[in-house]
Amino acid sequence: MTYVSSGCVKTSEGELPFRLKLILDNLNEVITQYQPEHVAIEQVFVNINPKSTLLLGQARGAAICAAVMNNLMVAEYTALQIKQAVVGNGHAKKEQVQEMVMRLLHLASNPSADAADALACAICHAHGGLGLGRIATTGYRMKRGRLV
Q: For residues 73 and 36, is the Cβ–Cβ distance under 8 A?
């Protein structure tokens, strides 16, 4: 694996539709610039705060739309699958994920928590999802971080 780039789309306070458009537009720019072949995204978990969960789901929807509008395949992974693939422990702490992402990608320092989460999702995809050397994974499922 080779690190190419990472970043974070920040939205300001304002009306939700405009914030979602900002996410969509920014991700379209990233896709145009880097020309990825796949997109990996973390599945939404039900948070303590339902409003936060709903907002996160809508942001994910904008991200998925950006991928689909660019004819990209989208793979979704749970936080447990991502942590298992990167750290070897599905209940790893954020700091452990950051450390392993730094080591696996040979980065000079730990990425931010948000960047580490995104990069960990990409690593998970490369290790066992649809990105597994373009080997078809249809008919398989993930069990304890492995295809079975």
A: no
